[in-house]
Amino acid sequence: MIPVTEFRQFSEQQPAFRVLKPWWDVFTDYLSVAMLMIGVFGCTLQVMQDKIICLPKRVQPSQNHSSVSNVSQAVASTTPLPPPKPSASNPATVEMKGLKTDLDLQQYSFINQMCYERALHWYAKYFPYLVLIHTLVFMLCSNFWFKFPGSSSKIEHFISILGKCFDSPWTTRALSEVSGEDSEEKDNRKNNMSRSNTIQSGPEGSLVNSQSLKSIPEKFVVDKSTAGALDKKEGEQAKALFEKVKKFRLHVEEGDILYAMYVRQTVLKVIKFLIIIAYNSALVSKVQFTVDCNVDIQDMTGYKNFSCNHTMAHLFSKLSFCYLCFVSIYGLTCLYTLYWLFYRSLREYSFEYVRQETGIDDIPDVKNDFAFMLHMIDQYDPLYSKRFAVFLSEVSENKLKQLNLNNEWTADKLRQKLQTNAHNRLELPLIMLSGLPDTVFEITELQSLKLEIIKNVMIPATIAQLDNLQELSLHQCSVKIHSAALSFLKENLKVLSVKFDDMRELPPWMYGLRNLEELYLVGSLSHDISKNVTLESLRDLKSLKILSIKSNVSKIPQAVVDVSSHLQKMCIHNDGTKLVMLNNLKKMVNLTELELVHCDLERIPHAVFSLLSLQELDLKENNLKSIEEIVSFQHLRKLTVLKLWHNSITYIPEHIKKLTSLERLSFSHNKIEVLPSHLFLCNKIRYLDLSYNDIRFIPPEIGVLQSLQYFSITCNKVESLPDELYFCKKLKTLKIGKNSLSVLSPKIGNLLFLSYLDVKGNHFEILPPELGDCRALKRAGLVVEDALFETLPSDIREQMKTE
């Protein structure tokens, strides 16, 4: 006998697959077990008991005398019998008692086998085997999608992820936190009525109507103190689960093989059910207890007609009716399954009820095989889908990332990264993190926050704890801000720096920072967009004083005009893109500093000459060759700084003498060959940079610059210095390196305030000992070859080496 346990291989191999078996599959499995037992029981009886018992038929004699001859023929045709004993009352009557056939056991066995094969209906013979085969086919159909390679791998992966998602501590925390505090309090009141007798009310006295997590067992609902104990390992495991779910969703949503496989196996079961019902109903009557057997074996047995008894006919008849009942129920269940499959769209799954119940609004709907498996899961337990949905939510993922981030970046670790920036503020730089740690807002001494290459930054209301925060830098960051945080920044933020890839990435809340004083915008635009670049209105930036735009715009944005009345400094770094429209400059009447860097300007813009309040002008890295317009600068009475460096200027016009208010002048990195003596009539100059040109001669009129403190002619072709240079007794920095000088005048000792001297790269053979009179000059401030330094007297060398 074959044990029933041997057929377990036809059912699912993994107990975890039960979550994908709805009630009808479980019910049909039990029906299959019952039908299997019928088949096994029938097969066992067939094997262990006699199948059929046959006896030869005997012809009965007639009651009247006229039939004596027929009886004689019948008797003659059979084995001779003993002569009958006549009765006293009726001598012609034959009395039959204990008839013997003279057949041995082997002949009976032969007759039984012949009649079983020839006379018994095939349905009566093979009924239990048919039951067994049909049942095994049903079981195979029910579980085929668990075994088929194209579907089993997806199912195994899904079950593995589902179990981890269900058991993850993060699932419980997300459901308790994201659904809102009101929901959690409502659950706590329901479970702890003895501790709370009041009901929380809304802002206007109405009850807070929040969906509670009723379907989550109490063991899964924890308070925040417990949920907050999520350790680093659990956080990393949950993070890995999010990635697995994303990849699995992309893979499974591509096709519907699972749905198609399940539909096909269900259709096959229905077809098989109809076939079984049809032929079994027609043939069940063929199972009879008495069977007439007519086989031509008279030569071997002496008999031709037999009467047989099918020993199991009565039992098989009952079993067949029972089997038909089971099959009918099985078939009706399969028909219901088909109705369920086609009545609703199972290739689409909506988490609407989960979104409403939990408050997690960003859970996406899914499709194809992913949707079908979730529908199957719901038939087992909807709680699985709810807990699985947590790992489809971007909000939940961001909260997990935030938790892991807080564990990794503690307040003490962040304090170690504090440094002083260019504005002399205490700055915290954070680069390429997964988010903004909440622990940042515990560093109350923070003055500047710099965020670089951080996606999905959310600035919470807790930023209000940073009372000293004045500066914020956002470099390639996408930022969202809480309304309370925005109110705080409007009142406290003084400096904002934004680095972007597209103007459209600028944070919209930037335009409402009414106390903002400095705004720095850095970003590269494509040439197609730059021609039509627009900024939203800056009129709300009432306190803006400094505006810097580093981009590739072709004109000054119109929005800048909104702040022209109070703008004091504007910088445009254009990365080589030609700036052609500068008429808006005329409206900036209070502008004191202007930088037009790398704007491909060929002439000094005429709009600049209208800026009567201008004090500093920087035209670095343009394409200036001639500066004849410089004469117009005489109307700018407040102009003190003029930087025309890194251009292609070949000469300085004599009109330069009219710029008597100049204090700082830079012509470095040009192509100037001759210095006009009129240049030195600008007697207020304190800073003069003529480095990296082709100058060969320094006019003696340089001695007129009695206020000169910085003078550089580095990398020119000067062969000698005029003695009048040493009349500039306030000189502190003198750079004459990389020229063709051969002698350094002893009069250099007159420069008592000289603290920095660069003479390296000349043809000096000796340094004058009068350098010792420059008491402020130390070895660190003297740039010279070591061998040349050794030519100084030892006492002077020692003097310079002492601090």
Q: What Rg, in angstroms, do the CA atoms define?
A: 52 Å
User: How does the overall form come out from the CA principal axes?
Assistant: rod-shaped
Distance between the termini: 107 Å
Largest sheet: 17 strands, mixed
* % residues in beta strands: 5-15%
Q: What does it look like?
A:
The chain has 803 residues and is an alpha/beta fold. The protein has 21 helices and 24 strands. The strands form 4 sheets. The chain has a 17-stranded mixed β-sheet, with no helix packed on it. Strands 1-3-2 form a 3-stranded antiparallel β-sheet, covered by helices on one side. A hairpin with a 5-residue loop joins strand 6 and strand 7.
Sum this structure up briefly:
The protein is an alpha/beta fold and 803 residues long. 34% of the residues lie in helices and 11% in strands.
